[in-house]
């Protein structure tokens, strides 16, 4: 079987499985977030934290819950790392330095999972399982909670109440993420991923000496790493490591885990607003972009010129032979379009245009299908922008799902889409202008610029993957990328929840003959075009200096 055909067949198989799961999982999540019943384990949690799960919250109270919980999480994870040297199960590793501890705490709480350290050489069992793995669950649940709050804003009227943050958070963990993770971990162990609490041990000869490896609860952390669109690996090689991702089947299964909740949440959205067709329109937009990016990535990685490319069957540098170009391309696009950050190949080794596709995928705003929760609310913000543009074309007040998109709503949406580019381009410009950050670049020219641009794009968009050609373990990058991750995660949530509250307070607008049908293919095309145009106008100059210049020169 040719490598190209193998990649295409894997893509088709993945699409079929996602389609089979889409409806039952989407409906189940809609029931979870609409239920008035509280299970016993959930009641124990509410009692422990002193929360009343039945109390409805307006958007400021909901936001305070999000920020307070996240702030405590940052402090807890920071403290756990700083105390590692004194904790049992540390494997002899020292406590983490302050700047790196801050960066890692910000990263995992913000659902970014950027890693400026070697996991198997820095973090012991307690930090890995009691700190990082826990944040993989709760940071994903926070994103889902905010998305559900926005959906309630569309679904409700004449009220500012958006539900209860604590109930949404706990239900997301207990009823959705935990059950799927248990099943997924069993599957990964069956595939060959390790799951133990063994210490450091020698595994044989390596370049004249012995090689050492850690044990760890890898399978359980790997599954939530992908399912929660987190991305932080137990090992530095991440999902290219055979302990995390042993074979082609586990690779495809991990891609499935990355995509299944973000895609299925569009069904949840449709059910909760009372129109599954609206969910299908959002799904179609996400799917068109995802499939298009995968096709482009496969083309650019298979179509390389020169003897080395012809012998290898494409751009095999930096890719695992057990996966090949096709599976690596699908994984790469899926992670950079979903705020996951996991990698099964070396992104810096992709062709110039391949690296550009990875960058553009993140710069779209992580919305196709995006992170768990964050992808849905990011896409709904773009849907509002698209409706507003359509309204300007015909001179009619824009409406979406029976809600008028007025001055207040469009200001919230505009602020949302401006925050991340400001962080990315501002920090990139500062890093390139100063001498110290530039010294961390291992490449010069266009590729070196792409390394810096990729780092801040990944951080501010809460992705977490890296070109890996940049030495990011410095005070400058640990601090600035940490700040970019926190601001890129929580500032947009402010405007999402403010928008949700504004929509929930409105009276429903009856549909008329002049109402734009947002459940039709025409609107899907408009939405795709809006996303690409906004992103292109924002980032094209930076992309032209980096991956486009590199691709045209090769």
From TrEMBL:
Record has GTP-binding as a keyword: no
NCBIfam families hit by this protein: kdpA
Similarity annotation: Belongs to the KdpA family.
Record protein name field: Potassium-transporting ATPase potassium-binding subunit
Location in or out of the cell: Cell membrane
Subunit structure: The system is composed of three essential subunits: KdpA, KdpB and KdpC.
InterPro entries in alphabetical order: KdpA (IPR004623)
Topology in membrane: Multi-pass membrane protein
Keyword Signal: no
Any one GO MF annotation of this record: P-type potassium transmembrane transporter activity
One matching Pfam family: KdpA
Biological function: Part of the high-affinity ATP-driven potassium transport (or Kdp) system, which catalyzes the hydrolysis of ATP coupled with the electrogenic transport of potassium into the cytoplasm. This subunit binds the extracellular potassium ions and delivers the ions to the membrane domain of KdpB through an intramembrane tunnel.
Source organism (scientific name): Streptomyces venezuelae
HAMAP family the record matches: KdpA
Transmembrane segments: 61-80, 137-155, 176-198, 249-268, 280-299, 376-394, 415-434, 481-501, 522-544
Broad class of where this protein is predominantly found: membrane
Keywords assigned: Cell membrane, Ion transport, Membrane, Potassium, Potassium transport, Transmembrane, Transmembrane helix, Transport
């Amino acid at each position: 079987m040719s490598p190209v055909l193998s990649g295409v067949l894997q893509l088709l198989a993945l699409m079929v499985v996602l389609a089979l799961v889409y409806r039952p999982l989407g409906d189940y999540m809609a029931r979870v977030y609409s239920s008035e019943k509280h299970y016993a384990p959930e009641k124990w949690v509410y009692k422990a934290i002193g929360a009343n799960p039945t109390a409805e919250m307006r958007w400021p109270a909901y936001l305070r819950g999000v920020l307070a919980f996240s702030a405590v999480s940052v402090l807890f994870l920071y403290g756990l790392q700083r105390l590692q040297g004194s904790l049992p199960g540390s494997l002899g590793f020292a406590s983490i330095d302050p700047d790196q501890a801050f960066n890692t705490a910000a990263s995992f709480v913000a659902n970014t999972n950027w890693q400026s350290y070697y996991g198997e050489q820095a973090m012991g069992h307690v930090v890995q399982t009691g700190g990082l793995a826990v944040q993989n669950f709760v940071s994903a649940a926070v994103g889902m909670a905010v998305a559900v709050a926005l959906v309630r804003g569309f679904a409700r009227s004449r009220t500012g109440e958006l539900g209860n943050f604590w109930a949404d958070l706990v239900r997301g963990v207990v009823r959705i993420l935990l059950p799927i993770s248990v099943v997924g971990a069993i599957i990964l162990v069956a595939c060959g991923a390790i799951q133990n609490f063994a210490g450091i041990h020698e595994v044989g000869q390596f370049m004249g000496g012995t090689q050492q490896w850690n044990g760890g609860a890898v399978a359980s952390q790997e599954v939530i790493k992908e399912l929660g669109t987190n991305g932080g690996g137990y090992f530095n090689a991440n999902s290219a490591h055979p302990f995390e991702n042993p074979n082609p089947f586990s690779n495809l299964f991990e891609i499935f885990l990355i995509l299944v909740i973000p895609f299925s949440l569009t069904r949840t959205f449709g059910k909760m607003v009372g129109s599954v067709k609206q969910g299908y329109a959002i799904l179609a937009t996400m799917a068109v972009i995802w499939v298009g990016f995968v096709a482009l990535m496969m083309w650019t990685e298979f179509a390389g010129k020169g003897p080395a490319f012809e012998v290898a069957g494409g751009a095999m540098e930096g890719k695992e032979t057990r996966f090949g170009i096709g599976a690596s391309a699908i994984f790469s696009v899926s992670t950079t379009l979903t705020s996951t950050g996991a990698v099964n190949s070396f992104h810096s080794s992709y062709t110039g245009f391949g690296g550009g596709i990875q960058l553009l995928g993140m710069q779209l705003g992580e919305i196709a299908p995006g992170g768990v929760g964050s992808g849905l609310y990011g896409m709904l913000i773009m849907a509002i922008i698209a409706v507003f543009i359509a309204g300007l074309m015909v001179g009619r007040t824009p409406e979406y799902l029976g809600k008028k998109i007025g001055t207040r709503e469009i200001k919230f949406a505009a602020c949302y889409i401006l925050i991340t580019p400001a962080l990315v381009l501002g920090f990139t410009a500062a890093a390139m202008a100063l001498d110290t950050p530039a010294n961390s670049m291992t490449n010069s020219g266009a590729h070196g610029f792409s390394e810096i641009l990729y780092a801040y794009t990944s951080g501010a968009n809460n992705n977490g993957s890296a070109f890996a050609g940049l030495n990011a373990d410095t005070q400058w990058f640990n601090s600035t990328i940490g700040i970019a991750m926190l601001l890129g995660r929580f500032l947009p949530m402010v405007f999402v929840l403010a928008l949700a509250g504004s929509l929930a307070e409105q009276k429903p607008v009856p549909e008329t003959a002049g109402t734009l049908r947002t459940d039709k293919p025409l609107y899907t095309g408009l939405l795709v075009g809006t996303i690409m145009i906004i992103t292109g106008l924002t980032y094209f100059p930076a992309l032209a200096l980096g991956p486009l210049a590199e691709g045209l020169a090769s």
